[in-house]
Design goal:
Blueprint (H helix, E strand, L loop, with lengths): L1 E6 L1 H6 L5 E6 L2 E9 L15 E10 L3 H13 L7 E3 L3 E9 L11 E4 L23 E5 L3 E3 L6 H4 L3 H14 L6 E4 L5 H8 L7 E6 L5 H7 L3 E6 L11 E6 L2 H8 L3 E9 L7 H5 L6 H10 L3 E4 L5 H10 L7 E5 L5 H8 L9 E5 L5
Parallel strand pairs: 10-11, 10-13, 11-12, 13-14, 14-15, 16-17
Antiparallel strand pairs: 1-3, 1-5, 2-3, 4-6, 4-8, 4-17, 6-7, 7-9
Helix pairs in contact: 4-5, 4-10
């Protein structure tokens, strides 16, 4: 069984260059590698596995949140001398290999992805992302944490979809976008924003974008032709006469403070994350005047809405969008490609990524 993992230094030295990479997070150089492990035992007739499902992974992808998990894992492993590792990965697709005796919602051969429903538990199962180790080639899940993928979505596409689709659909729902309103999507070239834009194709509203890097703006406008204009943080070029009713923001610590003056009365500001997630970035953040920030929001009756993941229905509705508009896939990697190339492209270290990056395993049921 393969898995992508944070590994100890001693194990890193034993692995072939093709299958390892040193990722830099702030001042840390963290060893990642593909490792081999044991396939988990699974007895579908046992009481212990009655509600569980064994999944053979077809593909997986890395998200921004995985950087924090990588750093956390390395802080635990960096002083360990033995050969050990911590598997990573958030999004995956896979085929059901075996089911427990109580499972009726899924059958062997179904293509599934994670259902990261949040915040309420379901079927006695805790909400949230079901695994921080989803690059594992085989993994066992409670059936409530899995959703069968519609037939119009391929297995490699499915490996990029769970978290982004569930989050974006929930954000758009909470934004309560009305006909003719001005909607701003920040970090317009980020993966999260691609998921948001995919939810806005059929909305009768005016969609604008905001970019921090200024890269790939023309490509985004070509792929999403309904975008009216993309503005730049660095150029501070949002026209004076344009105000926004809804902001859909992946990185509130980057954009919120500067956008308050561009919000209409009764605007909805929906955000799902922060940019500064590593320890060094968090401690180096410039302080803001929280009282002034809140006062400005109150004076305009702005609703600041935090969003973490979404409901099962959000995921179902979001997947339905891909019947007409596919998620943007930049590249599919396989075992023939080096791990360094996969990590470099996943985290856009060469500033040339456009869309999701996915790693596809070659095993079949």
């Amino acid at each position: 069984m393969r898995a992508l993992a944070v590994v100890t230094s001693s194990l890193f030295e034993m692995i072939d260059d093709h299958d390892k990479h040193l990722i830099v997070i702030d001042d840390l150089k963290i060893p990642l590698a593909f490792v081999e492990g044991s396939k988990p035992d699974f007895d579908g007739h046992s009481d212990q596995c009655a509600d569980l499902v064994l999944v053979t992974k077809s593909s997986f992808s890395l998200n921004y949140r995985d950087l924090g998990i990588i750093e956390m894992a390395w802080n635990r492993l960096k002083s360990v001398e033995e050969h050990t590792y911590y598997p990573i990965g958030s999004d995956f697709s896979g085929y059901v290999e075996a089911v427990g005796k109580n499972v009726t919602s899924l059958k062997i051969g179904d293509l599934v992805i994670a259902d990261c429903f949040f915040p309420e538990p379901k079927n006695g199962v805790m909400p949230g992302i079901p695994s921080n180790h989803s690059s594992r080639e085989f993994e066992i899940y409670h059936h409530a944490k899995l959703l069968k993928v519609p037939s119009n979505i391929t297995d490699y596409e499915a490996g990029t979809l769970s978290i982004g689709t569930q989050t974006a659909t929930s954000m758009v729902r909470k934004g309560e976008i009305k006909k003719g309103e001005n909607v701003l999507v920040t970090s317009i070239t980020s993966n999260t924003s691609f998921f948001l834009l995919n939810n806005l194709w059929d909305k009768d509203c005016n969609v604008y974008g905001l970019s921090y890097s200024g890269e790939n703006i023309d490509a985004v406008k070509n792929h999403f032709p309904f975008i009216k204009e993309v503005y730049s943080i660095k150029e501070n070029n949002i026209p004076q006469d344009i105000m926004f009713d809804v902001v859909l923001d992946a990185f509130s610590d980057t954009y919120l403070e500067g956008l308050i003056q561009k919000l209409n009365s009764n605007a909805r500001y929906v955000t799902c994350g922060i940019f500064n997630q590593s320890n060094d970035k968090i401690t180096s953040v410039k302080p803001i005047n929280l009282s002034m920030l809140i006062a400005n929001l109150m004076m305009k009756n702005v609703s600041f809405i935090g969003n973490c993941l979404g409901s099962t229905q959000d995921l179902i509705d979001g997947l339905d969008q891909y019947k007409n508009h596919k998620m943007v896939i930049d590249k599919i990697f396989t075992e023939e490609d080096s791990l360094s190339d996969f990590i470099t492209k996943s985290y856009n270290l060469n500033s040339n990524k456009f869309g999701k990056v996915v790693y596809q395993y070659t095993n079949d049921l």
